[in-house]
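Notes to self after the Tuesday call (sharing in case useful).
The group wants a holo model before anyone commits to mutagenesis around the pocket. I volunteered. Ligand is 3-iodo-tyrosine. Logging inputs and output together so the record is complete.
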Amino acid sequence: MLTTISYNQYISRTPDEMLTASQDYFERMNTRRSLRDFSDAPVAREVIENLIKTASTAPSGANKQPWTFCVVGDPALKTQIRVAAEEEERRSYEGRMSAEWLADLAPLGTDWQKPFLDIAPWLIVVFRRSYELEGTHKHQNYYVQESVGLACGFLLTAIHEAGLVALTHTPSPMDFLTKLLQRPANEKPFLLIPVGYPAPNAQVPDIKRKTMDDVIVWY
Ligand code: IYR
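Result:
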């Protein structure tokens, strides 16, 4: 059954304010970058919780919110994750990835070594929930990839707004995360996101964003 609450109190900008707000937000977001050089400086657990609260406001198929955010601060577990990720990544870089793929990654300077998994104070491991178990019935979730992708997008904007940095790390395959974090059968790993401060003098690749002519088609 549909029950409703009123909404319009959240929409209050004049057209001029809208122009400024949208420009300001673009300029702010345009300073976000994926970081690989992390500091080990601590970040309060309450901050991480706020970031995940924001991520969890994302829209989702039938409002099922089909995500679990596993937050790893324990140094021994971070090391286990690093070791397992590097094992898979070494195999990928040394054989599983095509020459074309490796060439595409060359400007980013990535390799199989992932020291940031030890160094960053927090690893947020995002799981997608394909279904919810109701007794023995598997109640399917909907548009799970889209929903969890949106939640991760919200998470990245929240991280940036908090003054922290992140990396959307994609070790592949990621089954080791299911095992190390003892996740149930209805969850699959989606993204591994180290969060923290950048290292002093952290560097990022000098890469460019596409122009609006490249990405917008007006009709
Ligand atoms: N998963 C590997 C390789 C990698 C793949 C893409 I596509 C990137 O944009 C960056 C890296 C890794 O995390 O190093």
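Two things stood out.
The helical segments are 15-29, 45-55, 75-96, 99-105, 116-119, 144-161, 175-180, 212-215.
The mean pLDDT is 97.
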